[in-house]
Model the fold of this input.
Amino acid sequence: MAKLSVAQRGKIRRLSQPKELAPDEEGGELNIVPFLDIIVNILIFVLATVAVTFTSTIETNPPAGKSAGVRSAVPQDSLNLTVLIVNEGFSLKAQGGNVAPGCLGVGSGLSISKRGNQYDYAELTQCAAKLKASNPAYAEENQVQISANPGIAYEIVINVIDALRKTPDGRGPLFENVTFGVSK
Amino acid sequence: MSEPTKASMPQFKAALRREIRRRAHEPEINFLNITAMLDIMTIILVFLLKNLGESASAVPQSDDLRLPTSVLRTEPSQEGVVITVSKTQILVGDNRVLRLPSRESMVQSGVGTSNKRNGPNDLYITPLGNALAKARKTDKILRQKKGKDPSTSEAIIIADGTTPYRLLIEVMFTLGQNEFGRYHLMVMQTKDKG
Done:
């Protein structure tokens, strides 16, 4: 077998060089890394924002007026609880009349006074649970009317609704159906 | 000295093929093909932005409007005309219907005599009532088309936490007078109110 000549070896060396692609022959990929960075950042921002703005809604009906309201018809033997929020605390009214201070029976005075400068929501929950448990006929009742002095902030009203929603142990429902009363 | 004999053409081509094979190297992966991933991410982004913008629960929190917090965990209702009560104004949908006076003034006489139907003690806010009457008309048609009960409309009330009770009742009363029979009070969820 004849050997390759010098010229043939040179030609083989030249021809066997791997071909370099010209810039216009390459894939023509766009540099999308900055674009990706922006997209990922926006995505994380949007997801984080969604996570912190969880909202909820409390269902209610038009407020009950002084003479006529939309409060659902309640049977005679019902608690008919009304919570009045005043600047000094909560005044509760039930079937028997005004609930006495300390949630002890019927009597005049503010049912639950402020503790220091703060409304005592825990005591309100205790008192509402106690009133509900005072008669087996009240067990199914879930309606409460809330009224407040004109200057009471909406946030306090919502706190009262929260306090009246569940029993003190947080398990059973208390008064979940809320209507508003017009303050005089 | 004699010139060495040249290899034949088949031998030359075989040698060339061998050399090309020897020199050929594995193609390098210079870039990842992330087009498919990009497609997905862009679609998710557009979807999230659209959802966020359209959702009634997307309430921008600012000094003028800061929702009260609640331990409630239910899904927010998306059904109804949105009424926004901030510290300075009342909006129906995106339209401002009333600029509110100072909080002290609202505690005394609500939104003011000039905006009431029958004097300072009346609860009906006339500019809000007019806007709600229009909204009710549209909502009534919508409810009919959707096959829902058209006799009453629903409202989503987005109110600032410091809104005085008097103003809240005035807004609710005006809603009731305009055939809005069910309200959804929007609150921010919180884990604990310790």
Observations:
- Residues 49 and 55 of chain A are 12 Å apart (CA to CA).
- The mean pLDDT of chain A is 81.
- The beta strands of chain A are 55-60, 82-86, 89-94, 97-98, 112-113, 143-148, 177-180.
